[in-house]
Design brief:
The complex is a heterodimer of chains A (206) and B (174). Chain A is of the alpha/beta class. Chain A is 37% helix and 12% strand. Chain A contains seven helices and six strands. Chain B has two domains: 1-67, Rna Polymerase Sigma Factor, Chain: A (Orthogonal Bundle); 87-174, Orthogonal Bundle (Arc Repressor Mutant, subunit A), CATH 1.10.10.10. Classes of the chains: A alpha/beta (206), B mainly alpha (174).
């Protein structure tokens, strides 16, 4: 434990039992702070077939899903500066999101039914994200086809940017947007993750 | 802020005792959460320790007694572990109890220090603040904070190595 680095050996005994005490304190702080409306962003990390996923939510809904390659610490720091520094690890608040993601990866869920908070995507990016759920499970659409759905049908590159910066990957299915030549294209979670998701969705229902 | 939870817990335990530390810890973090959007501390840990110190002072004022850190052996984590000591006695339980007793001995020794030395030792050695930050808290100079910390550690080592101290630390660091 890094906290004990530099603790004089004579005093090292004080660290005994600190871990369970901290777990207990964190839980009770969470309850008290929630009751007082002091937590603006709750987060947890869940394991998944595409690696550990950071889930963050506000009172309005799920606000961020982040892959490990995005750097979870960096994502939390960005949330602290853009949403609120009052961020606390609060697994229970994201139980519903974690459960729906589990079902999705198990092939038992084809669409998400979570309240979403789109505050991290503004303007045209939000417009693009709003159209992505129209691409059904197991289907793909080209960047150009998505652009055609928007108010700027020629903004193909901007659609690519909106997908690359999707704050809610997986739940808002930017992985279903592929290149016009049929190749799968880039993905915020990496090309391997994109392939895994498209293969998962192409598999017969279980 | 969570990263500093353990450091703040140690400060609370040193200032109000293990039994009451949890309450003061929670009050500290709730106060910090309330203040946070309007207060952008340059050094979050020193800021949290300052709040904890104030909350500990409030606690003593409310309790209407002098700050005497608890050294009650029953106030250690080991005592709250599930299973207890009479549950057939797994090694883990025995170790936890022994660790708890060792911790209680250290807390008792820290509690026996003069207030200045106690605070300097706790803020610097247990919470990891720099001497300059300790000096800001104590309202003295960096040199004085450094000296108080060194004197405190010397006194602690002598006490812990004595007959009432930890058997395991005898002779170490002297």
């Amino acid at each position: 434990m890094s906290m004990n680095h530099g603790l004089p050996v004579d005093l090292a005994a004080v660290a005994a039992g600190e871990a369970p005490a901290m777990a207990r304190l964190r839980a009770s702080l969470l309850a008290a702070a929630s009751a007082d409306g002091l937590i603006d962003v709750a987060y947890r990390v869940v394991e998944s077939p595409v690696g550990p996923l950071l889930l963050a939510g506000t009172e309005a809904g799920l606000v961020r899903v982040a892959f490990a390659r995005e750097g979870h610490d960096a994502v939390l720091a960005a949330l602290a500066s853009t949403v609120s520094p009052r961020i606390l690890r609060a697994p229970a608040r994201l139980d519903e999101a974690a459960r729906e993601l589990d079902e999705y990866f198990a092939g038992r869920r084809r669409r998400f039914e979570l309240p979403l908070d789109f505050r991290l995507a503004g303007g045209f990016r939000r417009e693009v994200l709003a159209h992505l759920p129209e691409i059904g499970y197991g289907h793909t659409a080209s960047y150009a086809a998505v652009a055609a759905l928007t108010s700027s049908p020629r903004a193909v590159r901007a659609v690519g940017t909106a997908c690359a910066r999707n704050p809610l990957p997986l739940v808002v299915p930017c992985h279903r947007v592929v290149r016009s030549d049929g190749s799968r294209g880039a993905y915020v979670g990496g090309t391997e993750a994109k392939a895994l998701l498209l293969d998962l969705e192409a598999a017969p229902p279980r | 802020m969570e990263a500093h939870g353990t450091a703040v817990l140690r400060v609370c335990r040193a200032l109000v005792g293990v039994q009451d530390a949890d309450d003061v810890w929670q009050e500290t973090f709730l106060a910090a959460l309330r203040a946070y959007p309007s207060t952008e501390p340059l050094n979050a840990e020193a800021w949290l320790v300052t709040i904890a110190r104030n909350k500990a002072a409030d606690h003593h004022r409310k309790a209407g007694r002098l700050p005497v850190p608890a050294s009650r052996p029953g106030g250690t984590e080991a005592a709250t572990l599930p299973g207890g000591t009479d549950a057939g006695g797994g090694d883990a339980v025995v170790h936890a109890v022994e660790a708890g007793e060792d911790a209680a001995a250290v807390w008792a020794a820290i509690g026996a220090l003069p207030k200045r030395q106690r605070e300097a030792v706790v803020y610097h050695h247990l919470a990891g603040l720099r001497h300059a930050e300790v000096a800001a808290l104590l309202g003295n100079s960096e040199a004085a904070a450094r000296r108080a910390s060194a004197d405190g550690m010397k006194a602690l080592r002598a006490r812990l190595a004595g007959p009432a101290g930890l058997s395991g630390t005898e002779g170490r660091g002297l």
